[in-house]
Amino acid sequence: MTTNAQPRTQWLGRWGFILAATGSAVGLGNIWKFPYITGEFGGGAFVLVYLACILAVGVPVMMTEIALGRRGRGSPVDALRRVIAESGRGSAWSLLGWMAMLCGFLILSFYVVVAGWSFAYLWKMLSGGLAGSSVDEMAAIFGANNASPLNLGFWSTLVTVATMVIVGKGVQAGIEKSVSWMMPGMVLMLLLLIGYGVFSGGFPAAVDFLFSFDAGRLSSEGMLAALGHAFFTLSLASGAILTYGSYLPATTSIARTTLSVALADTVVALMAGLAIFPVIFANGMSPSSGPGLIFMSLPLAFQAIPMGTLFGILFFVMLSMAALTSSISMVEATVSWLCDNKGLSRRSASWGTGLVLWLVSTLAMLSFNVGADWTLYGKHFFDWLDYLTSRWMMPLGGLGMVMLAGFVLKSESFREELGLSPGWHALWLFMVRYVSPLGILMIFVDALGITRV
Ligand code: PFF
Ligand code: NA
């Protein structure tokens, strides 16, 4: 157990936590993944299920995580250990803290590769490296970018270094300061892009695609993807939100804060859809082109329209910022744990973490070139990282945390931290005891292949 001689750092400004947690939530998940999985799973019906998952699973889990972080005032490992000890329960539950910390780290080791794509594409937009006249030519550019380990490694290393520089400066001077200008900047750019989308001619088609509910297109596969994405998009069970919660002042309302973050994340995902699909539809392209949607179809679409390069640059600047404000949150748990337990300075803790991260992410990056056939059960290393974290570690961690909060820990702890009226508290308890666990169990059923034919 650490000695808590010094009080824990807290967010400096009134908006510190909201900006940082929204920065963590809003990322590649919203702008890269949400539009393409919405495209794959058929639009409006998927969006509706996704919204239900955010409300039924995402919000209760996020409230629980912030409460655990603030109550325990530490990294996931330390915070959980304290809260569990306070309730006099067995330490096996502390494994949840270790798993969350590891999960954030593992997500980052493949996230920096995708974020690296974004930086590489920003550079290509600026230097005219994206000239191509068909989807095939764009696919060739994407392929060439991945084929060279030196090139791909350069961009993911750049993201790793940028992340570690920010985190190394500390919670207030690094994380809080950087999100306080990157987040407003990002939203401004997104608004400009939507404005552009409105005039591109494809806007009505995009609105129709995102919001018209066609129950016939609802698949069980789509529902499970929506549930898994709810965890990823809100940064849950990865130590990020819990650790940011450990810096939350005692008087801030956890429920209100959670609702703002979840709402902002959802609005940005929908806004990203409204910025991307009009351009896609205006060019008569398909919305269901998969992970390459924003790296192949979109740059091609930008080329075909007036001032497309300018808006293309804006798009990749925005995407890169969104990725960075997320990546810093994924290592904060580890860095905070190292500082509190190993007596390291912020700076050494982040460079140490960054070095290990760099080794793992290099292996992930090699999956796209020299390591393409280093596979195990048909998946290469990059896919394994994604699969293990989003299919197993996040749902399992989320399940553990709601069970811990709902059935194991003293209920006074949560009554005090959440400070809700009796009616709202009862609703939260019902959600964490029954609704969220059942939703999460559905993911496991799918991962085990029980629903597959
Ligand atoms: N929420 C981020 C996104 O949507 O891109 C991803 C993420 C961030 C996952 C932080 C996990 C995490 F700890
Ligand atoms: Na997100």
Automatic annotation (TrEMBL):
Highest taxon in the source lineage: Bacteria
InterPro entries noted in UniProt: Na/ntran_symport, SNS_sf, YocR/YhdH-like
Main localization category: membrane
Location(s), subcellular: Membrane
A GO CC term attached to the entry: membrane
Pfam families from the UniProt entry: SNF
Membrane topology label: Multi-pass membrane protein
Transmembrane segments: 12-32, 44-63, 95-120, 152-171, 183-203, 223-247, 259-281, 301-324, 351-372, 392-409, 430-451
Keywords noted in UniProt: Membrane, Transmembrane, Transmembrane helix, Transport
Protein name (record): Neurotransmitter:Na+ symporter, NSS family
Protein species of origin: Halomonas saccharevitans
